[in-house]
Amino acid sequence: MVTGCSSGLGQALAARLAAEGEQVVATARRPETLDGLVSRHPDNVVAAALDVRDPEQCAAAVERAVDAFGGVDVLVNNAAYGQFGTFEEVSDAELAAQFDTNVFGPWRLTRAVLPVWRAQHCGHAVFVSSVAGMVPFPGLAAYTASKFAVEGAAESLAAEAGHLGVKVTILQPGGFATAYSTNLVLPEHRIADYTLVGDGMLDVVRSMNDKPDINSPELFADVVWRLGQMDSPPLRLPIGPDSETLLKPAYDARRSEFDQMIKAGHHTVA
Fold it and tell me: Are 27 and 48 in contact (CB under 8 A)?
């Protein structure tokens, strides 16, 4: 089961899985966008309407998968969007909407699949995070916070359900040429003092579509396809030509600061 298949990474992944002969439940808020995929692969692809913010649709999508194929082996939580705006610019409503899709959505859908996995004694939950799940980006405070939260939830699931045969992988893609960069939701209220930081970051994000041959969604689909063939998949998997460049300094900086604080004794109470 793959969420968010109407475009971008989800569309490319569903198409690759279908071409490989996998049984695929492709989901989208507008299932008619999946008609072409289903018509090309009528024997192994079914479509399901799914807005991950809707608990009833989450339950119905899982039921659709069980009815069509007898269960769910892999769930790829891909559906998400980007809320642009600095910390001060993002309203409560905008923050809540960002988390409802990016965090609560994969949580409620995975929760709906877990009884199937407990019965099967196996399953693989894949959470599409981002390099933003480790690297904070100015102007993307809400999106970054949502991806940090997704990674924490996924790690908790790995600790809780591993003994039941449930595997967990957190994907950390860098920039890809998808509609994400052009569909960023701007905050209702902008603050002039943040223009330099915000607009600069907006330009960087929108430039991700400039090199579709390097960071195409098909690259993402190929990596995730190979991930599904692994007997022991990793907990975290960076994807894309810029993922290492962005993630390694973030890991190194955290470790360096940790070591400095331990060495200085700042972690102890005087």
Answer: yes
| H-only helix segments in the chain | 8-19, 35-40, 55-69, 92-99, 105-120, 141-161, 195-206, 217-227, 243-264
**Does residue 269 fall inside a structural domain?**
no
Contact 99, 83 (CB under 8 A): no
Closest CA to 25 of 49, 51, 55: 49
| Beta carbons of 141 and 85 less than 8 angstroms apart | yes
| Residue 248 lies inside a defined structural domain of this protein | no
Q: Rounded to whole angstroms, how far apart are CA atoms 256 and 37?
A: 48
| Amino acid letter for position 119 | A
pLDDT (tens, 9 = 90+) of the chain, 270 residues, equals 999 999 999 999 999 999 999 999 999 999 999 999 999 999 999 999 999 999 999 999 999 999 999 999 999 999 999 999 999 999 999 999 999 999 999 999 999 999 999 999 999 999 999 999 999 999 999 999 999 999 999 999 999 999 999 999 999 998 886 777 778 899 999 999 998 887 778 877 777 666 666 678 999 999 999 999 999 999 999 998 889 899 999 999 999 999 999 998 877 765
Residue 252 forms part of a structural domain: no
Catalytic residues, by residue number, are 129, 143, 147
Domains contained in the chain, number: 1
- This prediction has a pTM of 0.93
